Amino acid sequence: MTTGLELPGARISENLGVCYGLVVRSMGLVGGVTSSFRALRRGEVSEYTQLLEDSRRHAIDRMSENARLLGADAIVGVRFDSSEIGGQFTEIVAYGTAVKLDRA
User: How many other CB atoms sit within 10 Å of the CB of residue 101?
Assistant: First the structure.
């Protein structure tokens, strides 16, 4: 898996298409209230940092599983995107191109 468009030392033999992993998470009532109070002061809001870090890892795991189902050997051009849904939910998507590598 790489953010690059090629893998040094390997040759891409086949493009299998886009693979992705999607996660939608909520902070929850208690976490939301706690983080709202922390947001009143300067500095990091650790509850949101942890939520987004966990969500990105979960999205990567789902993207990797999607690539395996496609029969991929690797994923190139990996990117992340995120958005809010209704102010209560955070959507994280990891996506890239599933590829087969030349085994020669």
Answer: 15
